[in-house]
UniProtKB/TrEMBL annotation:
<feature type="binding site">
    <location>
        <position position="81"/>
    </location>
    <ligand>
        <name>Mg(2+) 3</name>
    </ligand>
</feature>
<feature type="domain" description="PurM-like C-terminal">
    <location>
        <begin position="158"/>
        <end position="293"/>
    </location>
</feature>
<feature type="binding site">
    <location>
        <position position="129"/>
    </location>
    <ligand>
        <name>Mg(2+) 1</name>
    </ligand>
</feature>
<feature type="binding site">
    <location>
        <position position="50"/>
    </location>
    <ligand>
        <name>Mg(2+) 4</name>
    </ligand>
</feature>
<comment type="function">
    <text>Catalyzes the ATP-dependent phosphorylation of thiamine-monophosphate (TMP) to form thiamine-pyrophosphate (TPP), the active form of vitamin B1.</text>
</comment>
<keyword id="KW-0418">Kinase</keyword>
<keyword id="KW-0808">Transferase</keyword>
<keyword id="KW-0784">Thiamine biosynthesis</keyword>
<dbReference type="Pfam" id="PF02769">
    <property type="entry name" value="AIRS_C"/>
</dbReference>
<feature type="binding site">
    <location>
        <position position="223"/>
    </location>
    <ligand>
        <name>Mg(2+) 3</name>
    </ligand>
</feature>
<dbReference type="GO" id="GO:0005524">
    <property type="term" value="F:ATP binding"/>
</dbReference>
<dbReference type="GO" id="GO:0000287">
    <property type="term" value="F:magnesium ion binding"/>
</dbReference>
<dbReference type="InterPro" id="IPR006283">
    <property type="entry name" value="ThiL-like"/>
</dbReference>
<dbReference type="InterPro" id="IPR036676">
    <property type="entry name" value="PurM-like_C_sf"/>
</dbReference>
<feature type="binding site">
    <location>
        <position position="36"/>
    </location>
    <ligand>
        <name>Mg(2+) 3</name>
    </ligand>
</feature>
<feature type="binding site">
    <location>
        <position position="52"/>
    </location>
    <ligand>
        <name>Mg(2+) 2</name>
    </ligand>
</feature>
<feature type="binding site">
    <location>
        <position position="52"/>
    </location>
    <ligand>
        <name>Mg(2+) 1</name>
    </ligand>
</feature>
Length: 326
């Protein structure tokens, strides 16, 4: 019998390969779908635009934190994509889907969290939309100003260049594990666990470092939302190169999470390599390591892949995918 193809049979990337070719472009398209943000032409320059959604029980649980935490994360997750293009975040609009029995105080708190995150980066919240629905869903669309610079894409990694990263790796995944283990942000937690939960609830993408890197002329950049291996795999594919990561360069991150991982019965190395949502920035640069970044590997020629210490090509897919375990 003919099998009906379902979303869960595909990876996100496979689904996008089916949908994106159906979508129209206009004369204003400078860069369409496929990178951290689109680039749109305007009479007086070019800007980037990007959107990311948060869904209750998929991206956050209301019991794990406050409305303000969700508002903060909805903003920061989008600012990370703007900064990853080398653009300065300027303005957002927000769509909210809310169940009717949700406390108004939660929504006010959410707005406070959004405002805090926006103020840090001098971003305006300029509008949005409201609807009712079965769970809380938040969609933020963020705009960014390229300030005359060329956008920094995922396809500029060339053999011999340095792979760099700014921000944390693995801490958000650690925080998620702590919360899944049953702690809440109110419990008395060890300092590390508390730090990890804080990083999960309130990611702090290195926006300023991303802008400096863009000014310095990095060749490629992206934000790490789905895990280092999966996202680096996307850069490797876009650039047609091998990204060779160094286990020594990430050893300190792994060591810092070891005790917590042990307590959670999980593996610190997989948090660092495959945990998402830290929203750090992965960049490739032919010159000096940009301020705020550290080198974590080197680009080399070959069939697109990510390796650690030149070992067997890692599964490009390891990391977060909304639909498929692959
Ligand atoms: N529904 C969609 N329609 C068109 N393009 C999409 C859709 N969903 C995602 N994309 C595009 O696919 C690329 C990958 O999306 P995603 O993995 O969410 O990016 P990011 O990790 O930067 O948030 C992006 O360029 C995004 O604009
Ligand atoms: C309740 C809950 N379970 C699991 C996760 C882990 N998680 C959810 S989505 C995601 C990946 C990042 O989110 P995504 O929507 O893919 O952002 P994008 O890549 O589009 O920026 C991760 C690691 C979570 N944040 N909350
Ligand atoms: Mg996205
Ligand atoms: Mg994103
Ligand atoms: Mg994702």
């Amino acid at each position: 019998m003919h099998q009906v193809e379902r979303v869960q049979d595909l990876t996100e990337d496979e689904l996008l390969e089916r949908v994106v070719p159906l979508l129209p472009a206009s004369a204003a398209r400078v860069l369409g779908p496929g990178d951290d943000a689109a680039v749109v032409a305007a009479p007086d320059g070019r800007f980037v635009v990007t959107t990311d959604v948060l869904v209750e029980d998929r991206h956050f649980r209301r019991a794990w934190g406050s409305g303000a935490d969700v508002g903060w994360r909805a903003v920061m997750q989008n600012l990370a994509d703007v900064a990853a293009m080398g653009a300065r975040p300027t303005a957002i609009v927000t769509s909210l889907v809310l169940p009717g029995d949700l406390e108004v105080a939660w929504v006010e708190d959410f707005a406070h969290g959004m405002a805090q995150a926006c103020r840090i980066h001098a971003v305006g919240a300029e509008g949005g939309d409201l609807s009712g629905g079965p769970v809380v869903m938040v969609s933020v669309t963020a705009h960014g100003d390229l300030e005359g610079r060329a956008p920094v894409l995922r396809d500029g990694a060339r053999p011999g260049a340095r792979i760099c990263h700014a921000g944390r790796l693995g801490w958000s995944a650690a925080g998620l594990a702590v919360l899944e283990a049953g702690f809440t942000s109110d419990d008395h937690l060890e300092a590390e666990a508390r730090d990890a939960v804080g990083r999960f609830l309130r990611p702090r993408p290195p926006v300023a470092a991303g802008l400096r890197a863009a000014e310095a002329g990095v060749e490629a950049m992206m934000d790490v939302s789905d895990g280092l291996l999966r996202d680096a795999g996307r850069m490797a594919r876009a650039s047609g190169v091998v990204l060779d990561l160094s286990s020594q360069a990430i050893a300190a991150d792994v060591a810092a999470l070891e005790a917590l991982a042990h307590a959670c019965g999980q593996d610190a190395l997989s948090w660092v390599l495959t945990g998402g949502e830290d929203h750090g920035l992965l960049a490739v640069v032919e010159g000096e390591v940009p301020e705020g970044f550290r080198q974590i590997g080197t680009v080399r020629a070959g069939e697109p892949a990510v390796t650690v210490d030149g070992g067997p090509p890692s599964v490009l897919g390891s990391g977060w995918d909304h639909f498929s375990g692959r």
